Amino acid sequence: MTKQIVIIGGGAAGFFAAITCAEQNRDVQITILEKSTTVLQKVKVSGGGRCNVTHACFDPQELITFYPRGGKELLGPFHQFMTGDTMQWFEERGVPLKIEEDNRVFPVSNSSQSIVDVLINSATKNNIVIKTSHRVESIEKIENQWKVTTSNGVFLADKLLVATGSNTHVWKLINQSRHTIIEPVPSLFTFNCDDNRIKEIPGVSVPHVTIKITGTNLETNGPLLITHWGISGPAILKLSAFGARLLAEKQYQFSIEINWLSKSYESVFNQLSSFKKSLAKKQLLPNSPFEAIPKRLSEKLINYASISGNKNWADLSKSDLEQLANLLTQSIFEINGKSTFKEEFVTAGGIDLKEVNFKRFESKLHKNLFFAGEVLDIDAVTGGFNFQNAWTGGYIAGKAMVQ
Questions:
Q1: Mean pLDDT score of the chain, rounded to an integer?
Q2: Residue 395 burial (CB < 10 Å; 0-12/13-18/19+)?
Q3: pLDDT single digits (tens) 161-176
Q4: Segment 187-203, tens digit of pLDDT
Q5: Share of the chain above pLDDT 70, in %
Q6: Count of CB atoms within 10 A of residue 398's CB?
Q7: Are residue 156 and residue 77 in the same domain, yes or no?
Q8: Cα(166)–Cα(55) distance, integer angstroms
Q9: Number of folded domains that form the chain
Q10: Contact status, residue 309 vs residue 361, Cβ threshold 8 Å
Q11: Which one, of 177, 210, 168, lies nearest residue 355 by Cα?
Q12: Contact in structure between 7 and 161 (CB atoms under 8 Å)
């Protein structure tokens, strides 16, 4: 008798698991159930429509550092199916990939449709049944099978994979089967900030800053972008991911300290003192010697310090230099709220990782029940890492379901 495999969720992890199942064992019937009218919608909009497939980090030990939650659990799985395996998988199926300067990996076509097409075509080629508009209403265990009732039918599964992403409705259904759900909170988001130092200069970016949340040990570094509503960029997104639960507890009202140069106060003060001599007869503006600080931001910081930009460097007092050094290395900003980062809404939360066997991505509580992707309490910083979690989990669960 043909084994029935049902996969709830028509996203990256669900499709990857289904295709892996079919390619490992032709003697199974695989059905994907998707609640919406289209599949792979998140893949389609990701990366601004280009799809950041994965990240060119090829060391599992380093790769797990990009996961605020789930890194430890993913170390073993990454030794089974890694970023290089993902790249090889797509390229072998006719989708050439490229590594960009920041190590993010995209299709050469610069279109997420290339990724969507290869997943759908591979599923079709392997006779995988895709059923859209099937919202799951209940999941029950009946003897050795799983009964899945949807808005449009009932399905019996010998093996069941839940790969629905951050779906609170499905989490509640899983919770009814005694699985613990870690309450979800937003993970990747930008900071709202109404501060005169960054007002009216949206679009200004600084290549390498160090940011910490005051009163905590949370600190990150990287590029920063000033926006119409506040602050964004890789450094902020990383901080939001690692601080997701803490910032939710603070109701997104907190302060941050920005070191615009990622240098110590002492070294910056000494540099400013040196500039006072070497640039003595030049005006403070536009002759800012810190190339990493864009001119418009320099003007804002100098004005905030109540120092005239028309002053010559030689006329700056020790107090002026101290104030500038402080602003450049220890600027405090009050954050009042958050904004979603593009279309890439990611949450921290999901099925408790202690209840999952990560050698198979199978439930420790129920045999033949599997999980993959963001339905688990796993999330990562931006850069292709969340997709890599989906590919790895989907691949391992897919293999396990046909063993």
A1: 95
A2: buried
A3: 999 988 889 999 999 9
A4: 989 999 999 999 899 99
A5: 99
A6: 31
A7: yes
A8: 22
A9: 2
A10: no
A11: 177
A12: yes
Say yes or no: 330 and 349 in one domain. no
pLDDT in tens, 275-306: 999 999 998 887 777 888 999 999 999 889 88
- For residue 226, the cross-strand partners are 231
- CATH for 163: 3.50.50.60
CB 320 within 8 A of CB 307: yes
- Please indicate, yes or no, whether residues 250 and 238 belong to a single structural domain of this protein: yes
Report whether the peptide linkage leading into residue 286 is cis, meaning its omega lies within 30 degrees of zero: yes
Q: Which residues of 308-340 are buried (b: 16+ CB within 10 A; e: fewer)?
A: eeeeebeebeeebbebbbebbbebebebeebbe
Same domain, residue pair 243 and 117: no
| 276 and 200 inside one domain | yes
DSSP 36: S
**Distance between CA atoms of residues 92 and 54, nearest Å:** 16
Find the mean pLDDT for residues 80-96.
98
Same domain, 25 and 150: yes
List, for residues 37-49, the tens digit of each pLDDT value.
999 999 999 988 9
Tokens representing residue 27 in the block: 């003697």
Tokens 């009946």 belong to residue: 142
Which three-class secondary structure state does DSSP give residue 147? strand
Tell which of 294, 324, 340 closes a domain. Answer: 340
Name the token pair of 12.
């990256």
Query: Could you list the residue range(s) of the whole structural domain that residue 18 is in?
Result: 3-185+344-401
Indicate if 172 and 225 belong to the same structural domain: no
The pLDDT, as a whole number, for residue 285 is 82
Judge if 181 and 203 occupy the same domain.
no
User: 129 φ, ψ to 5°?
Assistant: -85, 125
- C-alpha of 247 from chain center: 16
pLDDT (tens digit per residue) in 234-261: 999 999 999 999 999 999 999 999 999 9
pLDDT at residue 345 above 70? Answer: no
